[in-house]
Amino acid sequence: MAKKSELGVSSSTGNKNKKTKKKSKAQPGAVAMKVKAPKLNNPFETIWSRRKFDILGKNRKGEERRVGLARSRAIDKRKKTLLKEYEQSGKASVFVDKRIGEDNEEIGEFQKALLRSQREFK
């Protein structure tokens, strides 16, 4: 039995050969994750800047402008930043009283004035 497995001959209950292992790795979910949907380019969303002289095999950066995509990105960016600022614009901040003795109600007005004057002289 040991010689059969060493020679590469496997029984139905033994190890699977290499080909079946490769097939088992490629599951339909894994393949679907790797394959992305192709981007559909709308020719009306792109604007091409005109070249004065055409040179074969030369690609120029910034030749194609995607106006629709740029506009949608700008709108999304404005919604993320300006919308938050606009929503918070009506809210008023709360005044925090940091004067000495104001947070303590047990101290009288005279004691508060003494504590404040002592703080000034230090």
What does this protein structure show overall?
With 122 residues, the chain is mainly alpha-helical. The protein is built from five helices and two strands. The chain has a domain at 62-89. Strands 1-2 form a two-stranded antiparallel sheet. The mean pLDDT is 74.
**Topology order in helix (H) and strand (E) letters:** HHHEEHH
Strand content of the residues, in percent?
under 5%
Q: Quick one: biggest sheet?
A: 2 strands, antiparallel
* Helix/strand structural class: mainly alpha
User: How much is the radius of gyration in Å?
Assistant: 37 Å
Helix content percent band: 40-55%
Number of helices: 5
Cα distance, first to last residue? 96 Å
How much is the average pLDDT? 74
Low-pLDDT ranges: none
Shape: elongated
Name the strands of the widest sheet in spatial order: 1-2
Quick one: how many beta strands?
2
Short synopsis of the structure:
The protein is mainly alpha-helical and 122 residues long.
Which helices and strands appear, and what pairs or packs with what?
Elements: H1 2-7, H2 18-25, H3 28-34, E1 46-48, E2 64-66, H4 67-89, H5 109-121
Antiparallel strand pairs: 1-2
Q: Tags for this entry?
A:
122 residues, 5 helices
